[in-house]
Specification:
By secondary structure, this protein is an alpha+beta fold. Helix content is 58%, strand content 11%. The chain has eight helices and four strands, in the order H-E-E-H-E-E-H-H-H-H-H-H. A four-stranded antiparallel beta sheet has the order 1-2-4-3. Helix 6 runs antiparallel to helix 7, helix 6 packs parallel to helix 8 and helix 7 runs antiparallel to helix 8.
């Protein structure tokens, strides 16, 4: 999907133009892929994550019909997305937990750090990392709303979290709606 977004960037992709790719070996530490002619991809995820990965250099279109995928760069970008989400979650806990007990703060930090999904998610190349960041941004907006900070920042966080979530993964948009 990242290759398709590098070849045909669009927020509203034509899924009929997307194809599968065959592994074509390695070159300079990059995995090469060639278009598998006559196939149509069944990928129908919202495109934001894949556009972001293509835009940030995860894929290069080569002149001889090959596409070079820099898996290491994609993993580093995904770790940055995941780390941003975790740091924002820590910030929200640090600023919102009113307990003076260091145990309460430590318990919250432990709960965030040891989520089993995050251990696998951080280094994998998938849209869940951006979806997680979108949910935490949405949650930050909801917390501001609960605190009756009814200004443009609150509504921007809620809207941005929902927009990023919905354009990344439809189940993320559903989770945002359920959080309301």
């Amino acid at each position: 999907y990242v290759i398709n977004m590098a070849r045909f960037p669009s927020l509203l992709p034509d899924f009929r133009s997307m194809t599968f790719y065959n592994d074509a070996g390695m070159q300079d530490g990059l995995t090469l892929y060639r278009v598998y002619e006559g196939t149509i991809s069944n990928m129908t995820h919202p495109p934001l994550y894949y556009l972001l990965m293509a835009f940030l250099g995860g894929v290069r279109i080569l002149p001889d019909g090959l596409c070079a995928v820099d898996v290491t760069r994609l993993r580093v970008l995904n770790m940055a997305l995941s780390a941003s989400a975790v740091l924002l979650a820590y910030y929200l806990g640090y600023t919102r937990i009113k307990s003076r007990s260091p145990f309460t703060h430590a318990l919250y930090a432990f709960a965030i750090a040891t989520l089993p999904m995050l251990a696998y998610l951080r280094t994998s190349v998938n849209n869940d990392n951006l979806a997680l960041l979108a949910l935490v941004i949405f949650l930050a907006g909801l917390l501001r709303y609960e605190e009756e900070k009814l200004d443009w920042k609150t509504y921007t966080l809620i809207g941005l979290g929902f927009l990023i979530g919905g354009m990344t993964k439809l189940t993320t948009a559903l989770m945002c709606l359920l959080m309301l």
